[in-house]
Amino acid sequence: MNLQEEIIKSMDLSAPLSDEEVRTLIDEALERVSKKMLIGLKERERLRTDIFHSIRQLGILQDLIEDPEITEIMVNGTDGIFIEKHGKLTQLPERFLSKDKLRQVIWQITADCNRAVNDAKPIVDARLPDGARVNVVLDPVALNGPILTIRRFPPKPIMMEDLIRMGSITEECSDFLIKAVREGQNLLVSGGTGTGKTTLLNVLSGYIPPAERVITIEDSAELQLQGLPNLVRLETRNGTEGGGEGITIRDLLKTSLRMRPDRIIVGETRSKEAIDMLQSINVGHSAMTTVHANSVRDVVSRLETMVLTGMEIPVFAIRRQIASGFGLIIQLTRCPDGSRKVFEVARPLGIRDGEVEMESLFFYGKEREKDRKEEKEERRISPDKSEGKAVFGNQGGACGSCS
User: Fold this and answer.
1) Does the N-terminal or the C-terminal CB of the chain have fewer CB atoms within 10 Å?
2) CB of 350 within 8 A of CB of 379?
3) What is the CATH number of the domain that holds 211?
4) pLDDT value at residue 11
5) Helix pair angle (315-325, 273-281), 10° resolution
6) What is the pTM of this model?
7) Is residue 72 domain-shared with residue 35, that is, in the same domain?
8) pLDDT at 114
9) What is the mean pLDDT of residues 317-332?
10) In a shared domain, residues 166 and 132
11) Which 3-state string (H, E, C) describes 154-222?
């Protein structure tokens, strides 16, 4: 047993205690131990902080969660802890000494946000009080588990000016998207994991006229919408062991249509709810959502797949709803240096030869000669490959970090 564990074991934590009372108990325990062995002032202060975090907060994760520069925390069981900072992954020397200690942290996180995780339900999504997204996978589903992944968001919401300053978007493209939001166009933000889809959705939502009634629907509430007095926030719920019925995104999307929405924002469309989303935007509701896809043209096949998991409907009918429903598709990418870019903005034009025809309005950098030749060949074979109408970004060639 290490010194920290020995001190915790010597403390009486059976009664409900305030944070100040816990700190007093820690100081008393440290005083007793320091009479038996020499503990330096710096080491004593470190022990005081670590013990408090172990008892009251999230143990060795607390300092990481409080570091505003860390965007992702990945705990691979007792094997190690990795963080993403400034777009780079780093393994830390610290780690959980036992699976039990890690489970205690996981249970504390999930209990605080009304989510249960156990052997019967080993996978759960949750969030911390500051809005950070949490995913948990317990062993034995995770062979080296328990696995804990925390994605953090900036304490201060990112603004469009920040994205322009970071080179994620140009002023011309941002002005175009802001106008589209104010006009109530239906927007779909697509991209891979960690490309900044939720961040951009947050930024664009800041330009929704304050007079609108806005309803947000999320698995775990992450959106940080500001300046919207008529805002309704809905969150899914897992089924409970006591027989409580689970509430899905699809359930919330259906009920939101009865709440007189001016605009519906779905944090992520990932399954059967895609059909309800397409139907709602094709009958006049304004909506914004995100989807995982590698390109604006992959969005079509992703939505088709999602719709077909919930309803047998001709693919042509799905494509027609996509083409007529969404005003803009915004594709994000993540470069090797960790930066995120608005890579392409495209507009569905309609159906041609059975395919959704896309018009590329903005594109990050010009394609290299090889890319242009491949694009021409693809365009000759598939009619949905249309010519870009405008180019922005590094006008001298492709993005150096993306090429």
Assistant:
1) N
2) no
3) 3.40.50.300
4) 59
5) 50
6) 0.72
7) no
8) 65
9) 95
10) no
11) CCCCCCHHHHHHCCCCCHHHHHHHHHHHHCCCCEEEEECCCCCHHHHHHHHHCCCCCCCCEEEEECCCC
Reported as a pLDDT band with limits 50, 70 and 90, residue 399 is very low
Instruction: Name the domain count of the chain.
Output: 3
Task: Tell me what pLDDT residue 221 has.
Answer: 79
Is residue 386 a part of any domain in this protein? no
Length of the chain: 403
How are strands ordered across the β-sheet holding 81-85? 88-92, 81-85, 70-76, 147-151, 133-137, 123-127
Same domain for 238 and 348, yes or no, is yes
User: Do 187 and 45 share a structural domain?
Assistant: no
Residues 279 and 340 in one domain: yes
Largest CA distance in the chain: 84
Q: Which two tokens stand for residue 50?
A: 């670590």
What pLDDT shows up at residue 15? 56
Measured distance CA(214)–CA(193) in Å, rounded = 26
Q: Assign residue 365 a region: left if phi > 0, alpha if psi is -120 to 50, beta otherwise?
A: left
235 pLDDT higher than 60: yes
For 65, phi then psi, to 5°, come to: -65, -30
Rounded to whole angstroms, the Cα distance separating 344 from 182 reads 20
Residue 151 falls inside a structural domain: yes
pLDDT tens digit sequence for 155-174 = 778 899 999 999 999 999 99
Phi then psi for 133, rounded to 5 degrees?
-85, 135
Distance CA 69, CA 107 (A): 25
How large is the average pLDDT for residues 183-203? 94
pLDDT at 328: 97
Q: Specify whether 204 is located in the same domain as 344.
A: yes
Q: Is residue 115 within 8 Å of residue 186, measured between CB atoms? A: no
Within a domain: residue 99?
Answer: yes
Residues 184 and 38 both lie in one domain: no
Q: What is the pLDDT of residues 364-377, one digit of tens each?
A: 864 433 444 455 44
Which of the four pLDDT bands, split at 50, 70 and 90, describes residue 63?
confident
Strand partners, 124: 136
Structural domain boundaries enclosing 32: 1-56
User: Would you say residue 402 lies in a domain?
Assistant: no
Q: Are residues 200 and 111 part of one domain?
A: no
